[in-house]
Amino acid sequence: MSARLIDGRAVAATLRAELASDVAAFIARHGRPPGLATVLVGEDPGSTVYVGMKHRECEAIGIASFDHRLAADTSESELVELIERLNADPAVSGVLIQLPLPGELDGVKLPGLVDVAKDVDGLTALSAGLLALGRPGLRPCTPSGVMILLESAGVLLEGAQAVVVGRSNLFGKPMAQLLLGANATVTMCHSRTRDLAAVCARADVLIAAVGHPKMVTADWVKPGATVIDVGVNRLEGGLVGDVDFEAVRERAGAITPVPGGVGPMTIACLLRNTVLAAQAAAGELRLA
To answer: Do residues 232 and 213 lie in contact, with contact meaning Cβ atoms separated by under 8 Å?
Structure first.
């Protein structure tokens, strides 16, 4: 029997509708909307498209968007000055530095200058520390989206064996922390994991995020397991994930497709973080 599909588009649409209501209520209380500022340096085609999507999604639910586009030869001092200005701007609830940064601009140092209270990407050292300690804070968007998908699918994480394939700072490490926070037993795998297929085959929840097309095959999957495919790989035939979808769906209990699974949740969770940051700045909740 084929696995049940976890529809990220539908879950993201529900979340956006809830956020639109939250934004309208925030405006009614404070006379202004939450605001998201993005900073795009250079003209990377993928980043340009992605930033445009973020602003369209903001406008669709009533969030104010501030689009800062800088030349590829922008100096570090100019970018630092802009980040400091956005940190101090009360109209800006969240600040996002679009990665990758061009040239010699430091893609870790410079985004790390964003005020933790406005770190809607959840990727600064302070945000990572709050997550590691189990303290309230803004969480990285894609891992947060995965947690919402798992909840929507009714996946019981407490006591479950969860395997994360990929140990990146952007996804793998925060994903493992969120799973631990939900009382799952977590194994993080990477390029030097011995007998990777056998480790994955023990998972009740298997999450793949390595950027290797169709790497996870059916024999890597425990019958009835939940499989979350975070990979996005462009091949001649279109987009595919890190999971061999057609083969694995005949073995798994539930699975996310690519496209239409995890992807739609990332921007939806960015919008949620922007609303949460605005509410925290207004004293309505505590994030740090």
So the answer is: no
Q: Which of 22, 115, 119, 121 is catalytic?
A: 121
Task: Report the first-to-last Cα separation within the chain, whole angstroms.
Answer: 46
Q: Are strands 185-189 and 161-165 parallel, antiparallel or unpaired?
A: parallel
Choosing from 22, 98, 115, 214, the catalytic residue is 98
Q: 54, 118, 173, 214: which is the annotated catalytic residue?
A: 54
Name all domains of the chain by residue range, CATH numbers in brackets: 30-118 (3.40.50.10860), 141-263 (3.40.50.720)
Select from 83, 99, 87, 91 the least CA-distant residue to 63: 91
pLDDT digits (tens, 9 = 90+) for 177-188: 999 999 999 999
- Alpha-carbon torsion angle 188, 15, 258, 137, nearest 10: -30
| Contact assessment for residue 153 and residue 226, using Cβ atoms and an 8 Å cutoff | yes
pLDDT digits (tens, 9 = 90+) for 178-226: 999 999 999 999 989 999 999 999 999 999 999 999 999 999 999 999 9
- Give catalytic status of residue 279 as yes or no: no
Helices 172-181 and 125-132: angle between axes, nearest 10 degrees: 30
User: Active-site residue 98, yes or no?
Assistant: yes
